[in-house]
Amino acid sequence: MSEPRRIYSVDVFRGITITLMILVNNPGSWGYVYSPLLHAQWHGCTMTDLIFPFFLFLVGVSMRFAFVKWHYFPSQKFHKHLFFRALSIFLAGWFITAYPFIRQDWDWSTFRFMGVLQRIAIAYFISGMLIIRYDFKKLMPVIIGILVFYWGILFFGGSTNPYSLEFNLVRKLDIFLLGEKHLYRGYGIPFDPEGILSTFPTIATVLIGYLIGGMLHTTKNYNDCIKRMTIFGIAIIVIGLIWGIIFPINKALWTSSYVLFTGGIATVLLAILTWIINIQKWKKPFWFFEIFGTNSIFLFIISGLWTKTILAIKLNLNGKSITAYNYLYNTICVPIAGNLNGSLLFAFIHIIGFWLVLYWMYRKKINIKL
Questions:
Q1: Residue 348: CB partners within 8 Å, gap ≥ 6?
Q2: What is the per-residue pLDDT for 187?
Q3: Measured between alpha carbons, how far is 364 from 277 in angstroms, rounded to an integer?
Q4: How far apart are CA 274 and CA 256, in angstroms?
Q5: Contact 32, 340 (CB under 8 A)
Q6: Is the bond into 141 cis (omega within 30 degrees of 0)?
Q7: Per residue in 82-115, is it b (16+ CB within 10 Å) or e — as a string?
């Protein structure tokens, strides 16, 4: 099998995305967070709302390079590889949800079935099945079909307010198939932002990434490739914004307008990074992010396990029992920087800590792939 070619700007973009993920997932206190580091309450898109689609976009870009070794042939060996990799990522998501396994308040009747890794696994598997069978010309109609179909099914399957939190079809279907007790409750009512139906348009996000990966993989002229990427990216941003007037940009529903808007931003940013790194040869300033671009799924898992571990540990502070998470924030970060900046400092400490772990793995050439 031929080895996949690597594009440094892709690794750097992945590293930037992972860095932002750690930043937004680990504030010292959710009561003190700068607004760009929070998700939009419902419709709309903040910087934080770009992180997950960026990661899925990069999954698609990477698939273009990784699938070279399969010669784009749907062999039995390929299907086995695709299935077991998707399964391992999906089960890793369940592992994080279930951890820690021994708790007094544990109740399997409220176990959340869906989640970030589960969504990545499903989108990866279905996208892989499409990519191995269809060329670029056939994938574009597939993307358009997914986005238009999703728009239609949400519009006709909802109520008089089909894109609202309470009455959208995504929530209805999840309640019917999974039950209210197995859904995320961060919105105040049972609603899963990684629901079953809303995972369907994430396939389009992966496929857009794959198309952009194809541009980079086959190009003989980076200047020309960057121009085409930029034009394509700006075009789908504009289409997403226009579509968003009637089908709102919404991460929780992963609306079709959101797919195009975020996919366009990802494309333009990757074009800019490719120009800076591959044309201008400014590689060294991005070395920090290169480290974060390695072992990305592994880092997601250990960061999730670490957070749940320190949330489960109880410590005493001034006669009051608090979690180790709050203890570190209140005893280290708040005295140094206050509540708001201390919360940000807490997140930066996690960025440095996890970077050191990945740097050690990088030096030891340890690469963990699920």
A1: 23
A2: 92
A3: 25
A4: 27
A5: yes
A6: no
A7: beebbeebbebbbebbeeeeeeeeeeeeeebbbb
Q: How far apart are CA 359 and CA 352, in angstroms?
A: 10
Q: Would you say residue 3 has pLDDT above 50?
A: no
Please tell me whether residue 147 adopts helix, strand or coil conformation: helix
Q: In whole angstroms, what is the distance from residue 95 CA to residue 120 CA?
A: 15
Non-local (6+) Cβ contacts of 66 within 8 A are: 4
- CA distance linking residue 116 with residue 138, whole number of Å: 28
Looking at every residue in the chain, the average pLDDT score rounds to 92
Task: Give the distance from CA 330 to its chain's centroid.
Answer: 30
Which uninterrupted H or E stretch holds 323?
A: strand 320-323
- Tell how far CA 320 is from the center of its chain: 37
At 181, give phi and psi (nearest 5°). Answer: -70, -15
Phi, psi of 252 (to 5 degrees): -60, -35
Res 52 pLDDT > 50: yes
**The one-letter amino acid at 252:** A
Q: What is the pLDDT of residue 217?
A: 86
Tell me the pLDDT tens digit for each residue of 326-366: 999 999 999 999 999 999 999 999 999 999 999 999 998 88
Determine the Cα–Cα distance for residues 271 and 12; give it in Å rounded to an integer: 12
d(CA 259, CA 268): 14
Nearest CA-CA partner of 125 in 88, 161, 93, 153: 88
The pTM of the full predicted model, rounded to 2 decimals, is 0.93
H or E segment at 316? strand 314-317
Cα R_g (the chain), whole angstroms: 21
In sequence order, the 6+-apart residues with CB closer than 8 A to the CB of 256 are: 146, 147, 148, 150, 151, 201, 204, 243, 247
